[in-house]
Design goal:
This protein has about 950 residues and is mostly beta strands. It is built from twelve helices and 47 strands. Helix 4 packs antiparallel against helix 5. About 35% of the residues are buried.
Length: about 950
């Protein structure tokens, strides 16, 4: 199937290139920045927008993901834009960032301010990542081939206790709880035999993170071929790539886990005549993933070393040789592992992760993506000088499905006896049955379709050499529909994602000194009631190149260029028009309409008076709101960009103050309490209000000393947020989220451990279960003598959208044919909690090494962990005890490149050759480095070491 798809894609590309051999693309210059539906000279850029030349960066920094380390180049981008999730556009079309590889990209523009995104309408209201792919150019045929291969090395694994230590400390937890160890604990013989390794099948001690199950490293390789060229009539660009990687696990069917990706792109541009141009782009991506069954990484954090009291392996060699029935079981089993073991189980765990990996089968997940867009452009200068027209349509299709193979299997629980001083299995209790199958089946199936269409008129004219006028009038819309099977993906969406708007822009600048720009959009939304579905989003931007003024030039000579800029915008958006209906079902349609229901999730059950069966009564689930309207992003930005010391330093700085008003709420604090309860008469209303402020910056330094040329780029953002209004009824005024940061972390102030029963008696009463010496005690915030939920306080920022301060670094040094490049990033000002299962150990859960610091009478003055217990709802709550600062610096990449002198290949068909060595995710500098580099319940973080080469022909 994979070979057939690759063949089809190659045929498609050949047809595309041959059929459009007369094509030609537009020139792209380094000084031109791609913005919404237009390009602008970099010196004339207004609003907050940052552009990155990816094709240039790829010469010294190889990556595959399209947004690879973007935050190290762009201030204000942290995976979000100014703290909010952006719309991703590829060549102006809504697409996933994962659908395009870095080698295909020419540039990326991050549009941050409202004035920069307004033309894209409602769905772009939280920022835009505009990815522009490579195009052909007028030149002879050029072929670039790049090959890479590298290894992933795990950084760190969590440290868990061995079986004997776990059993010992679990007994301690039972004793602390006043529970006899005979009621679920372990005997001293069991612990001692386990520690001695007397019989690993009767007393198992399994380390899932050990060498029996994991490799030391795994590999990834990829190869990319780029073909480009053209003449005055046609230009083309083609990208063909393949990548492959396996995984760390070497046990069972997981030993065969792998990912294979094949992609092909063809971009063609043409001149149909002197005034009419066209372009066609086609992309196909095919992904194949193979994985064995069983949640191995999840099991590493949940399955204890004694495998929850049973062995996953039953050795055939220890079956009673005189018991023919046992020998027959071994002989007839479908799953005799390595000819030595039956699969183990108990009544409470009849299957387990290792048995799944050995016997349950596999899943082959396949995804196919096809992206297609076509455009026509017309120069209408014969009608009006400077007038152009452009129309673009796109059709994207993406599907994913799995071909699964699954087998039920039998497991066995042994009965151990001692015969002649030896452990012998004298009986087996069987759970489940072995079955055969020769058929795969479709496990998951989903499909996404996106269609877009836009038409626009553009006008660009210069009068008397000094007066520059631009204008744009456009219509843009797209719809994206998701479909899936009900069982695996929750079924198809009832309404597609839609965006429809008209856009307009009018700009003027005088001598590139004074600027004014009016941009806006008329948006439309079917989420809102009739009469409220259309709205205007206006923006205005001003600019002043103050460095061109005589009073400035004559007095401040070290500044070569300085442009002041400001903008105000009021963006209307419907992407936050979301809510839930009775039963908890999320929806974003018809929230303005009230409804009634007599279902089990809403209506009450009544029995008829005659004693017969009753039924559900009809109750209100929601009231009408015919005035529901758009959420508004009102924003002021002020900034400047320029260069200093003869262009030694360039900088771009933007301050933003952004208010989001009209977020939806149900009016709990507005309507009387009797509006809800038995039937709900509250409508959705535009009520909640938020504010985001910040300062982003990007500074670059370029200098040459002798033969060494170097550059340093620093980007970053100071960020803050605040709840201005929220629908809430806090129990105490200090618990109100209004006035707090959007990412405020609430928890308790810990005062250490209770040291004695007298300490407990003399402290406020804690209501989170029975407390004993060694448990955490909390501060009574409201002084009512009781510790409960009302004693939580704001402990700091989570940084989930953006930390209070984030930054990125990029450094380049060139000497002769060598280039050294490094990337770094960091955050500070946020806090986190050690609240994973690694730290919060309850019940019979797996114990990590942190429990060695547990509180006991002997360690009460040095303890670093609460007393062990099987049930502590008191201790395992977010509090200052578990809190830590997430300040960190990441050394994301170091690459050394050697570019061979072209003279070496003067008499060959090779035009250039570069080789490079690279390391990724190399280092984290932080007080909590070990915690930050350790994953719990998932595959480990890795360092990646890569060797690559690029050749041009």
């Amino acid at each position: 199937m994979m070979r057939k798809n690759i063949k089809n894609y190659c045929v498609l590309l050949v047809f595309l290139l041959c059929g459009l051999a007369g094509a030609r693309a537009q020139e792209k210059k380094d000084s031109i920045v791609n913005l919404a539906f237009r390009t602008v000279a970099k010196q004339d850029l207004l609003g907050a927008a940052s552009t990155v030349d990816i094709s240039d960066i790829m010469k010294k920094s190889y990556g595959t993901y399209s947004l690879d380390n973007l935050g190290s180049f762009v201030g204000g981008y942290t995976g979000n834009v100014w703290g909010q999730a952006p719309l991703v556009l590829v060549d102006g079309i809504p697409r996933r960032a994962s659908d395009i590889r870095l080698t295909e990209i020419q540039s990326i523009t991050v549009l941050k301010s409202g004035s920069a995104v307004v033309l894209y309408g409602s769905t772009a209201a939280k920022g835009v990542i505009l990815i522009t792919t490579k195009r052909g150019s007028v030149k002879p045929l050029q072929v670039d081939v790049r090959a890479n291969t590298g290894v992933f090395l795990p950084k760190s694994y969590p440290k868990y206790l061995n079986a004997a230590d776990y059993m010992t400390l679990y007994n301690e937890a039972l004793t602390n709880d006043g529970i006899a160890t005979s009621g679920g604990g372990y005997t001293s013989d069991q612990i001692n035999n386990t520690r001695a390794g007397a019989n690993p099948y009767k007393y198992p001690d399994i380390n899932l993170l050990g060498s029996d199950y994991l490799k030391k490293a795994y590999v990834k390789s990829d190869v990319t071929t780029e073909v480009s060229g053209g003449n005055e009539f046609a230009r083309y660009y083609t990208n063909i790539g393949m990548s492959y990687n396996n995984n760390l696990v070497k046990f069972g069917e997981w030993n065969n886990n792998n990912d294979f990706v094949f992609n092909i792109r063809g971009n063609v541009d043409m001149n149909l005549n002197k005034w009419l141009t066209a372009s066609v782009d086609a992309v196909a991506v095919n992904t194949n993933n193979y994985t064995g069954r069983g949640d191995f990484w999840g099991a590493t954090s949940s399955v204890t070393a004694n495998f929850n009291k049973f062995s996953p392996y039953i050795p055939v060699s220890m079956l009673d040789p005189n018991n023919s029935s046992l020998q027959a079981i071994a002989k007839n089993s479908n799953h005799l592992i390595d000819g030595k073991y039956l699969l183990g189980g108990v009544s409470s765990s009849q299957t387990n992760v290792l048995s799944d990996m050995l016997a349950a089968g596999y899943i082959k997940t396949k995804s196919s993506t096809f992206l297609y867009n076509m455009s026509l452009g017309a120069d209408l200068g014969s009608i009006l000088k400077g007038l152009t027209f452009k129309a673009i349509t796109s059709m994207d299709y993406s599907s994913i499905y799995s071909e699964a193979y699954q087998l039920p299997y039998a497991t066995y629980q042994p009965t151990w006896s001692t015969v002649s001083g030896q452990d012998v299995i004298t009986a087996l209790t069987q759970y489940g049955v072995d079955r055969n199958s020769t058929n795969e089946f479709i496990g998951v199936s989903s499909y996404t379709q996106t269609i877009s269409l836009r038409s626009q008129f553009g006008y660009q004219r210069t009068f008397a050499n000094d007066h520059h006028v631009t204008a744009t009038l456009l219509g843009w819309g797209y719809t994206s529909q998701f479909s899936s099977d009900q069982d695996n993906n929750g079924g198809s969406t009832y309404q597609p994602v839609k965006n429809l708007n008209l856009g307009f822009q009018a700009g003027y600048n005088y001598k590139s000194k004074y600027y004014v720009d009016f941009s806006g959009a008329v948006v439309h939304s079917v989420k809102l009631p009739p009469g409220k579905r259309n709205a205007l989003s206006p923006t205005v931007s001003l600019g002043w190149r103050i460095s061109d003024e005589d009073f400035f030039k004559n007095n401040i000579s070290f500044i070569n260029d300085l442009k002041l800029k400001t903008s105000y915008s009021s963006i209307k958006q419907d992407i936050d028009i979301t809510g839930t209906r009775a039963g908890g079902a999320a929806t974003d349609t018809y929230l303005y309409q009230g409804y009634y229901s007599n279902t089990a999730t809403l209506g009450g059950w009544y029995q008829w008076r005659d004693g017969s069966a009753g039924g559900f009564t009809t109750l209100s689930g929601q009231a009408d709101n015919p005035d529901l309207t758009y959420v508004k992003r009102n924003e002021l930005t002020v900034g400047f960009d320029g260069s200093l010391f003869k262009n030694l330093i360039t900088l771009d700085v933007n301050y933003f103050s952004q208010t989001t008003d009209g977020l939806l709420a149900r009016g709990t604090s507005i309507y009387p309490s009797y509006f809800s309860g038995w039937g709900d008469f509250r409508p959705w209303i535009n009520y909640n209000k938020e504010k985001r402020t910040g300062l982003d910056f990007t500074v670059n330094l370029n200098k040459q000393i002798g033969q060494v040329q170097y550059s340093l780029g620093v980007s970053g953002m100071y960020y803050n947020s605040k709840v201005l209004r929220r629908d809430e009824l806090p129990e105490e005024s200090y618990l109100a989220r209004t006035g707090r940061a959007l990412d405020a972390n609430y928890g308790y102030i810990s005062e250490g451990f209770f040291q004695s029963q007298a300490d407990i008696a003399n402290s406020p009463r804690q209501t989170f279960g029975t407390v004993k010496p060694g448990d955490l005690k909390y501060q009574d915030i409201n002084n009512d003598g009781i510790i409960d939920s009302k004693d939580q306080v704001d402990l700091g920022h989570t940084g989930y959208a953006a930390s209070p301060f984030s930054y990125g670094l990029n450094f380049t040094a060139k000497w002769k044919h060598f280039t050294l490049f490094a990337l770094g990033s960091g955050t500070s000002g946020a806090v986190g909690f050690k609240n994973s299962s690694y730290y919060w150990v309850g019940g019979s859960s797996k114990y990590s090494d942190v429990v060695w610091g547990r509180w006991t009478e002997a360690t009460k003055n040095t303890a670093t962990y609460p007393r062990l217990t099987t049930n502590s709802s008191n201790n395992f709550r977010n509090s200052t005890f578990w809190m830590y600062k997430v300040n960190r610096f990441n050394l994301n990449r170091v690459q050394v490149t050697y570019d061979f002198d072209n003279k070496v290949f003067r008499k060959s068909f090779v035009h250039g050759l570069s080789v490079y060595a690279q390391g990724d995710n190399l280092l984290v500098i932080s007080k909590e480095r070990q915690l930050m580099e350790t994953n719990i319940g998932s595959a480990p973080q890795t360092r990646f070491f890569n060797l690559g080469a690029k050749a041009s022909f």
